[in-house]
């Protein structure tokens, strides 16, 4: 296989992965009212922060396998929105850790519930399970969207 064919095959695989996995998740995040201005990676950063009491920006970048500058710019935006805060580490006050604010925690909990409902609906649709159960879940999801708007 030539290098050009290998590159073409790789691009096709990346595109297929994007279309089947990343794009639907990104669209789900964008339909959630409080995250409408954010991408799926930002939602994942908030999730990662929520899983730790406190975490450094460097650790967050490493855990998500992205550059420190990319995470730092996203963190700066979330701080400005009041969704996260930066606090000095107790052991070494030169090190700053980030954590969700009460506002960020509330949005993260709502987003988690919203995505769980959406994933459940998608799973039911893919598995062609009970149609009435799928309608019930989709109705519940719609109700959540209305209450958050």
CATH H-level homologous superfamily name: Winged helix-like DNA-binding domain superfamily/Winged helix DNA-binding domain
DSSP helix count? Answer: 6
Low-pLDDT residue intervals, each spanning 5 or more residues: none
Could you give the distance between the termini?
52 Å
Helix content: over 70%
Structure summary, number of beta strands: 3
Largest sheet: 3 strands, antiparallel
Q: Radius of gyration over alpha carbons?
A: 19 Å
Average pLDDT rating: 77
Alpha-beta content class: mainly alpha
Strand order of the largest sheet: 1-3-2
What best-fitting shape do the alpha-carbon axes yield? Answer: flat
Q: Could you describe the 3D structure shown?
A:
The chain has 149 residues and is mainly α. It has a single domain, classed as Arc Repressor Mutant, subunit A, CATH 1.10.10. The protein has six helices and three strands; from the N terminus they run H-H-E-H-H-E-E-H-H. The radius of gyration is 19 Å and the shape is flat. The mean pLDDT is 77.
Comma- or semicolon-separated keywords:
149 residues, mainly alpha, Arc Repressor Mutant, subunit A, 70% helix, Tscrpt_reg_MarR-type_CS, WH-like_DNA-bd_sf, transcription regulation, transcription
């Amino acid at each position: 296989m030539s290098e050009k064919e290998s590159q073409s095959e790789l691009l096709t695989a990346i595109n297929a992965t994007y279309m089947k996995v990343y794009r639907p998740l990104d669209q789900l995040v964008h339909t959630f009212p409080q995250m409408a201005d954010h991408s799926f990676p930002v939602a994942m950063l908030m999730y990662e922060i929520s899983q730790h009491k406190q975490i450094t920006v460097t650790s967050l970048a490493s855990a998500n396998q992205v550059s420190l500058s990319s995470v730092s710019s996203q963190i700066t935006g979330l701080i400005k929105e009041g969704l996260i805060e930066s606090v000095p580490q107790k052991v070494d006050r030169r090190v700053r850790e980030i954590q969700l604010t009460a506002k960020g925690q509330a949005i993260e909990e709502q987003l988690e519930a919203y995505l769980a409902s959406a994933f459940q609906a998608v799973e039911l649709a893919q598995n062609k399970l009970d149609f009435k159960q799928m309608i019930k879940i989709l109705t519940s999801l719609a109700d959540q969207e209305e209450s958050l708007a």
